[in-house]
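#lab-general

N.A. 3:47 PM
ok so I finally got the sequence cleaned up, no stray characters, all 465 residues accounted for. can someone with queue access submit it? mine expired

B.Y. 3:52 PM
send it over

N.A. 3:53 PM
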Amino acid sequence: MRQARLPDGFGVRLDPTVRTFSDGRVLIGGSPTRMLKLAPTAAAMIGDGYLKVVDPQSAEVARHLLDSGVANPRPMSSPPNHDVTVVVPVRDNIAGLNRLLPALRGLNVVVVDDGSAEPVISPPVQGGRGEITVVRHSEARGPAAARNTGMALATTGFVAFLDSDVVPRTGWLEAMLGHFSDPAVAMVAPRIVALEPAGGALARYEHARSSLDLGRKEGPVRAGSAVSYVPSAAMLVRRRALDECGGFDESMRVAEDVDLCWRLHDAGWRLRYEPISHVAHDHRVSFRKWFGRKMFYGTGAAPLAARHHGLVPPLAMSWWTLVAWVFAATGTRFGVVAAAVTQATTVIRLRRTFGELDRPTRIATVLAIQGMAGGAWQLASAVCRHYWPVTVLAAVCSRRVRRAVVAVAVAEGAADWWTHREPEGLGPVRHIAYKRLDDLAYGAGLWRGAVTHRSLAALKPRLTR
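B.Y. 4:20 PM
back already:
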């Protein structure tokens, strides 16, 4: 990782989910969960959970907290807006472009027409200092190529990529720019919300459960974390970092944004998700387009797995958790007892790790239960989403399996509704129905991609000890 020093005045605050022990010298949290041990002097710097950088030592501690995922940045300054060029790739969506450009007034904008049937004409600048430049690909080369073309024309230190079907909300840019006061940050992405939250049932489902909406919680962006990537529909990037990694991979027509995020991280850069910044997206709400898009997203898993070995698992858990649930799923007395023994073994193993802390048995038990619950969520999701063709085949062959699958599909859907419910959203029954169709489409795309690329790498679980 790049070890660029954080500037004086930069602050970090412990994430609310982090637990502190031993007078603040031991922190447990982050995603995935980890234990962080601090020297007494470092623990004293944090105090009430906030640390302000004032010298090299505090800068080093702050960096360690950020990289461990147990703290979030609180920058004190930001680059100016005029150091940003906005790149908008567009193809046959002049209505969306005309809706977007007024929200970018005062910024320099490069519109890349990626082979539209009717060429995009450069619109006049409507007030402010910004300029609008339009360039055209004579034939469609894909969104990755369009973004690279726009980036090559930018002369500013930062480039914002916005698709033509989004509209940024007030303050979207300022909320993200502050993160770049950390010289090691290469990319920041906003939360993508629905442009029209109301509407029919599918529109309300997408408002609550869009694949582009990564939720309300801020955090680092890296594979295996709560936010493993951010979509290129809206992102802000340090131009130097993008140049160094070669921009978007133009050979990829899907998941090129995921690939970019992981390549930047592999190069040592930090990436952040900033949900305070909002960019509204015009969701596809006709069933055919919606279902097709979900399937399209699924096809991206296979090429990603080929480029980033082991980072696209349908399941990621410990062998102990998997074994415990396999035993429990048998529904037999022996299975239940074996699952309990497996969990007890997990608690004993964890207790050894936390032996120096206060109440190590309690901590180990809580974490073991959390791991078991997380494993159940992953398994239920994988059965209904990634592995549904196998699930359907097994259900056809066995009445017992069929009953279990129905129960899992309903329970997982109900839990998903409860987690993502909105005041004006769908009721549980329709939400579950759309969730199952969502998973059906993605899973079909995943298997299609696996067949096309002749690789099952995207279907292999990642199991740890």
